[in-house]
Design goal:
Length: about 350
């Protein structure tokens, strides 16, 4: 009995094996298989993406998002801090000028010129406002300007009167009528052969549809200048006079007109006569009523030898501008359309001068 006990003490103890339980086996078989640790590492959870797709996360907005939604033009502080935005001044409001023959437009022009250029205020005070209330069909006005080229007002008027009679009246001065007149017929009433070719070129451009009265009225200033200077015998000075006194365009600056240039020299007390290339910059402040300001420049120069003070112009009553012989020759070279620029202007728009 004692040996039996000793044998039991010396025999190595074996681990006890639990008895298999059938019910436990059944439970294990029905349970879902557990993922292997390596498989779990290959498919990481991404809670941030899940939160973005969830309804709660979609309703949340960051402070920068809210600010951008309230003010689309605002930039997030972080971006604006590192971004250099150049200063851009606000453009000055533009005045939409209408034809000078429209009711009240002259008054608007004078108020603008007084505010834009105080040196014009004394001139505006001592003269009655200009009146742009006459209108001729463009073809008739252009024909008239060609006939008056390099002629004094009296001689031009005589030839123009005979020309109108030859056509059968002003209402009959039409492209077809002018083309029907031969150079010999025109020469008999005092029209030179060169001027006859100018008249025929203008009439042909009307007949071919390149120009028309309606298109001339509807064109903007730049396009009109380009199209009219394509006509033989019509230069920049003639176009400017036509635009001011026939079409009543408000913002025309005749940079080649000696009277306007001389007026600018007197107004601003310049030592030298400004060049045509300088006129745009000197008269920029007059926009969009440079036509009206140019009218006052002619009035300023009416009195020969008048000082630049506007008060000296009060006594000027004559519209005849007497130029020295040297300036008179220069006038012929720069604007050959009229020998006498003031009388030529009277021809194109006598009512604009108040005569």
């Amino acid at each position: 009995m004692g040996e039996s006990t000793q044998d039991q003490d010396q025999k190595p103890t074996e681990p006890t094996q639990p008895h298999p339980d059938p019910s436990a086996a059944t439970t294990t078989a029905n349970a879902p298989p557990q993922n292997h640790p390596s498989q779990t590492a290959k498919i990481p959870l991404r809670p941030r993406k899940i939160r973005k797709l969830s309804p709660d996360a979609g309703d949340r907005k960051s402070p920068h998002t809210d600010a951008a939604a309230e003010n689309p033009k605002s930039t997030p502080p972080k971006v604006a801090k590192n971004k250099i935005v150049p200063y851009q001044p606000k453009p000055a409001p533009k005045i939409a000028a209408r034809s000078l023959s429209c009711d009240g437009e002259i008054e608007i022009a004078l108020r603008h010129l007084r505010a834009a250029d105080p040196l014009l205020a004394p001139l505006i005070d001592i003269h009655l406002p200009p009146a742009f209330d006459s209108f001729h069909p463009p073809f008739l006005a252009l024909t008239k300007s060609i006939l008056y080229q390099q002629l004094a007002y009296k001689a031009g008027t005589s030839i123009y009167t005979r020309f109108v009679s030859l056509c059968g009246g002003e209402d009959c001065v039409l492209p077809d009528t002018v083309l029907a007149l031969t150079p010999q017929q025109l020469r008999q009433i005092g029209v030179s052969g060169r001027k006859a070719s100018y008249l025929h070129d203008l009439a042909r451009k009307y007949q071919n549809g390149i120009l028309s009265d309606s298109s001339i009225v509807d064109m903007d200033d730049k396009s009109l200048f380009t199209m009219l200077t394509m006509v033989n015998g019509i230069g920049s000075w003639s176009v400017h006079m036509f635009m001011i006194f026939s079409l009543h365009r408000p913002d025309v600056l005749p940079v080649n007109d000696l009277g306007v240039r001389k007026g600018v020299q007197m107004l601003y007390r310049l030592e030298e006569l400004p060049r045509p290339s300088q006129m745009e910059q000197l008269c920029e402040k007059w926009r969009p009523y440079r036509s009206v300001a140019s009218w006052y420049m002619w009035r300023l120069v009416e009195a020969k030898g008048a000082p630049s003070s506007a008060g000296a112009v009060v006594g000027a009553t004559s519209l005849q501008l007497q130029l020295p012989e040297q300036q008179h020759h220069q006038q012929q070279q720069q604007q050959p359309q009229f020998l006498d620029p003031i009388n030529g202007i009277l021809n194109l728009g006598a009512c604009a001068w108040g005569q």
